[in-house]
């Protein structure tokens, strides 16, 4: 980092250790009524986003959770319950709980089912925001299983040919165990770009490419201000001529598996993440939905063979011929592991706005900072 | 259709009924050594592509299958065998058979497992091209199950930052049953566009958008001729700034579930579809791979409730506000069902080149035309 950039960085950022952030998060969740175990679980999901560099899904979300809880939209001591099941499959009612708490409980059940039946699949209704999808998928790794997690989310993406937000960023995550390499973790939103990237471009006064967003009329726009005036994100594929119908189909896949299959809300009815937006009338389901799963590798191949093949797969992709020798070929999830290694040493940078937000939150909830 | 276009159409196309094409395909497969049942199954998969308007995966592929068979790369009377299993999961060795035959057999096993264990998942190695992924996923529908199918394919897509073809168009298909609406069928290649679309643009002398392809150096190109000179397709997302790393991750997901998990080849080693290209040395597995699955809806929700919710989901997306009143919002798979309805009445148009190809094939194999 050159000197000028570094100064800029120091002026706006403060560094925290993972443990410091986790402690704050645990205390906030306890102040909201969580028991100790649930608070630690939720904090672990949250801080795993910060350490992996997915800042939009880390402690910066805490004040949002508190607002939703204050508005009575989150139950901080949910009694999750299996309401239907058939050996390898089950549906869980999240009792209005926070997804950060509900989803790991569901994933543990999926893992137990996979031990008995080879695979385990849970559809979860009546839940809320569950943090990064990758965390839940990665819970399968120590069991030599492939993990999978999806969730639907606040609608912010119109289908191809529509100007109405019908789908959220609906992420898909898969985690694959390896032998000596880092696990291969796929964790992608089915939008073409994260909202946060557009906001950063705005802050840095940079132009965004055509295809990242549409205006309120559904037309592609590069005017970032229109994002706050009814604008929306685009599905993966970005423009119709570049395949946005495929991103729309992937977002639909997630919405159906998480929302329709579980009995949660779907489409335009998925509850918004902010308390100042009302719920739509005629809700077709309860809360928002997740879909999680685990598959035991031994049911397909000896796990040691599979993991050795994964290492080989990764090595072959890492050594694929480069366009430009100076630009490395990354495998899915690799950048997040590199970020984790870096931040475990240097600490996690939070920008001043997030720090002020957290300080205010702690003050309000009588938590020592 | 205006008069000029119609003349153009008539000059280049001949119309066939589904039964006519199926009969030709059955006879070709029998001439290659298939038994009657397998030949009818394979022909059904193939012709379902033609009737649904996915012309690139229909009878136009027959001569390609024959060439591969002549080169000794396909076993037309495979003895498929479960080589490993754990209740809801299994691995099947396709015995070098054609995917059109191997995949439906595997899907039937997955459906049987789903009846017993709630879900069934098969990884298939040692197979070949399996036609349209959607066909296999849709086999689950009459059982009130959600069907899923993926396959890896001839490498033709470089990872982000690479200029080497490491992934095929690796499709993902899911089929969801409905009550009164047509089933919702997602079937998408993880490339930004089909190669066929670029070839049509070439034939019609039309410009293609930036993002559809790259040249042999891995750089985005709009010069279609470069596709035949080492050029490649792009992953869904098309350009790096528009999210091509997500399409790369989705293609990787398919490659790992179909290739690594089953013990088939993966990455650059996936066998090419044409016999004149040699197999790479040091193959890590056998043939190409599929991954198929079925989930019984009753294990999650009463099937009637789920299907009614699917109808509601479809209706809500169909009635999403339009950008332009004249442009309908389609749900995934809808266009293929509309095409099927149309072609059941009008017939299936094949262009002259495909017809000549089929005629030559029939002559060579002593099949009556």
Give me a quick take on this structure.
Two copies of one chain form a homodimer. Chain A is of the alpha+beta class and 369 residues long.
Uncertain stretches of chain A = 1-7
Q: Into which percentage range does the β-strand content of chain A fall?
A: 15-25%
Q: What's the SSE pattern of chain A?
A: HEHHHEEHEHEEEHEEEHEHHEH
Count of helical regions of chain A: 11
Helix content of chain A: 25-40%
Please give the domain count of chain A: 3
Mean pLDDT of chain A comes to 95
At the third CATH level, what is the topology name of the largest domain in chain A?
Ribosomal Protein S8, Chain: A, domain 1
**What is the β-strand count of chain A?**
12
The name of the CATH architecture of the largest domain in chain A is 2-Layer Sandwich
By secondary-structure content and strand pairing, the structural class of chain A works out as alpha+beta
Tags for this model:
homodimer; 369 residues; alpha+beta; Hypothetical Oxidoreductase Yiak, Chain: A, domain 1; Ribosomal Protein S8, Chain: A, domain 1; Wheat Germ Agglutinin (Isolectin 2), domain 1; 3 domains; 7-stranded mixed β-sheet; 3-stranded antiparallel β-sheet; 11 helices; 12 strands; 38% helix; disordered N terminus
């Amino acid at each position: 980092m050159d000197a000028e950039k570094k100064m800029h960085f120091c002026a706006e950022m403060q560094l925290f250790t993972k443990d410091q952030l986790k402690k704050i998060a645990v205390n906030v969740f306890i102040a909201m009524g969580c028991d100790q175990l649930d608070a630690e679980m939720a904090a672990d999901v949250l801080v795993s986003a910060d350490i992996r560099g997915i800042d939009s899904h880390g402690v910066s979300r805490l004040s949002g959770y508190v607002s939703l809880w204050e508005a009575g939209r989150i139950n901080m001591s949910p009694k999750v319950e299996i309401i239907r099941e058939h050996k390898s499959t089950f549906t869980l009612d999240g009792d209005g709980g926070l997804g950060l708490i509900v989803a790991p409980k569901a994933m543990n059940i999926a893992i137990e089912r996979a031990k008995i039946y080879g695979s385990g699949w849970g559809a979860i209704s009546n839940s809320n925001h569950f943090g990064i999808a990758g965390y839940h998928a990665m819970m399968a790794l120590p069991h030599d299983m492939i993990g999978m997690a999806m969730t639907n989310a606040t609608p912010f993406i119109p289908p191809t040919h529509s100007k109405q937000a019908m789908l959220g960023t609906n992420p898909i995550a898969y985690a694959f165990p390896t032998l000596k390499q880092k696990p291969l973790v796929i964790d992608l939103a089915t939008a073409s770009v994260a909202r946060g990237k557009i906001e950063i471009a705005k802050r840095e006064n940079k132009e965004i490419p055509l295809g990242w967003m549409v205006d309120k009329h559904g037309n592609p726009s590069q005017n970032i201000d229109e994002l706050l005036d009814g604008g929306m994100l685009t599905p993966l594929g970005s423009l119709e001529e570049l395949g946005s119908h495929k991103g729309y189909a992937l977002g639909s896949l997630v919405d159906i598996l998480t929302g329709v299959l579980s009995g949660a809300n779907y489409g335009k009815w998925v509850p918004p993440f902010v308390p100042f937006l009302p719920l739509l009338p005629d809700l077709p389901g309860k809360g928002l939905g997740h879909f999680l799963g685990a598959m035991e590798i031994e049911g397909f191949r000896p796990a040691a063979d599979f993991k050795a093949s994964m290492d080989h797969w990764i090595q072959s992709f890492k050594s694929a011929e480069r366009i430009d020798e100076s630009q490395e070929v990354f495998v899915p999830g690799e950048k997040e592991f590199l970020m984790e290694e870096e931040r475990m040493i240097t600490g996690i940078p939070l920008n001043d706005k997030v720090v002020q937000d957290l300080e205010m939150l702690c003050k309000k909830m009588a938590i020592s900072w």
